[in-house]
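Deviations from the work plan: none for this task. Representative record:
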Amino acid sequence: MNPRILMAIAKKDLLEVRQNKAAWMPMVIVPIVFIVLFPLLIIVLPQLSSQAAEQLVNDPDMAMMFERLPAVIMDKVTGLNAMQSIVVMMLGYFFAPMFLIFPLMFSTTVAAESFAGERERKTMEALLYTPASNAELFFGKMLAGLIPALLISWLSFLLYAIVLNAAGWPLFGYIWFPLETWYPLIFWVTPALAVMGVGMTVLISSKVQTFMGAYQASASLVIVVVGLMLGQFAGVVYLSVGVGMLIGLLAWIIAGVMVFVSFQNFNRAKLLVSSN
Amino acid sequence: MEPVIQVTNLTHQYNGHPALNALNFSASKGQVVGLLGPNGAGKTTTVRLLNGLFPPSSGEMRVLGYNPVEQGEEVRRRTGVLTETPALYERLTARQNLTFFGTLSNLTSEETKTRSEELLRMFELTQRADDRVQTFSKGMKQRLAIARALLNRPQILFLDEPTSGLDPEAAQQVHELIASIRDRDGQTVVLCTHNLFEAERLCDKVGIMNRGRLLEFGTLAELRQRHAPGLWLQIRFYQSAPASIPSFPGLMEALVEGPLAWKLRVSDESLVPMMISQLAAGGAQILSVQPQAMTLEEVYFKLQNAQKEGVA
């Protein structure tokens, strides 16, 4: 495989994504909402309004969540005041699975544009007449999905850390984020989910004719993340370092299988038939 | 001369339906070979097979000495293909399109840049090189798509319906271009078309296809010889034609076309001077003698109709 060809394919796909608002707009808006607006609401609003803070601290649902917290988290919030505990619990623990939406969302968006979009715009055939091998075409396109997914996820994490510490400084007076549980999620689970998102989208793209079709079908993967979130709220699962590593391992295995199956199906004959 | 394309009993089926049926033909270096036929004749399938996009159901192929089934990448490194639709990245600029395909054709960055500029200039697209392709006219897109096919200086250029949907002016430009490619660079061109005028004008050899079968293959003269042997002559007379058509040696067919014209088919052109002098000696006032070769269109429809009637 020629890395220059892989990069050329990835670059071309990203250039095309840049021209498709429907593809990149959610990649900008969603992180802004989740990593800037939502945390600011939780941290800053109670600081500005004592009534809001009181409501939050005395909220019965909040009390129930505290009751369900595993002992290991309770240790982390011991010694913190009520408001600090709420911020750590909400933004430090419960918010973590939400973050896993990013690699899935970004990778599926670009991969849908790259695989299904190419067919939708009837440009696939010209690509197939080039001397690039099937592997170069496949992994070049995969790279196009992975690069923005990982870059934006990691940049979002960095921005999230900055927002949380800057906005939380009056409340904590020290840098409290990231918590150790985030590292496996960001550097182990996130890449696995990005690969999984691409693999799933390639499989779906061979069945649907349009970018939107592939994008919407792949978006169903977000259910995995929603499941994790609900599990945390219900106290069934807690994303500790160990659990994060385990989820990552599982995600890598699923991603590996998906990529393998997708690659087996990625050949010129099948692509031509599906693009006609 | 060693053929650059050699196809023997090439057969292909899509989901059980025959797309190609025992195709046999060859093309030599520097020839323009036309594959003619209606939609569904198997022209595009032939191009795809020759470029190794998928293997045939049976039969043998050699392209530039390579087997496209096993050495598809080697073949595609040496061929250029203009697909039926331009298949350009419309959101990218003309230059970005060429740069991308140049890289995928294994050209170095420097080669890609030089070659792209050269082709943009050749196709009069330099002024619009940095505009998005979606702003181009149909003719400009087609020119850019041909430029893309020429990026790697292919030894064989496949053109699938190169003038389809173009206005006469743009089509004329493409015709001139194809002729110049052959004359200047000695490339072999495989032209898939249902434009018979285009084929007659440009092709050294033509293959007439229908429903996956190659009904005929050869030079236009060979096709004429096989399907309309002899030579048609149109003879016009001044004021009046002789009362009847005399019988000449080698006269195969005779038609009266109005009071002042005959149409005669003779077995060989060497008989024409003798025939004319006999007519003149008999008092015929000959105004003009016009040889009329059978057109490709006539051969084409003769074959297609025969195929329809199940004769061919």
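Chain B has a mean pLDDT of 87.
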